[in-house]
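re: that chain from earlier
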Amino acid sequence: MVGRVPDAPVARQDGLLVEEVEDELVVYDQRRDSAHRLNRTAAIVWRHCDGKHDTAQLLQVLEAEVGKDLADEDLVEISLDMLADKGLLEDAAPARAPEETRLSRRRFIRRVGTVGAAALVLPSVTSLVAPTAAHAQTQCTTCTACTSSCTSCATCTSCVCTSCTACG
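^ sequence. v structure.
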């Protein structure tokens, strides 16, 4: 990539369908058959992962968008961790240990001071895995845990399957 800054993350674009919904993004990953909802903070970071913004510059972008009193390096790192975990970054840096991510989260909440204010800006990437066509058509006849009269495991709302071969 021309003009790429060393250690600047790049948002994956290949195989993704992106839809903006208010100030959030819905990203459908065609490779993994999964959809991700990026809240405002995660969406801001992902949009600016262009190979030209390193962590310090991403922090400046977040400060401009959510305010200097809320944005900090931990918020950027938490966002990048979540995006990398969902496969939404190209050539992501090696994943930080879960303890490091938890520490960043705790430091951020402690610095912000109130859980309510932190909840407004903490990044969130919520995922939903789409069933394969074959799984969606599977009859829920082999499940002994399911007590409903469902016709498909994918649409069953009361099924508690955990070991059923049809439901996974």
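The beta strands are 10-11, 16-21, 24-29, 34-38, 89-90, 125-129.
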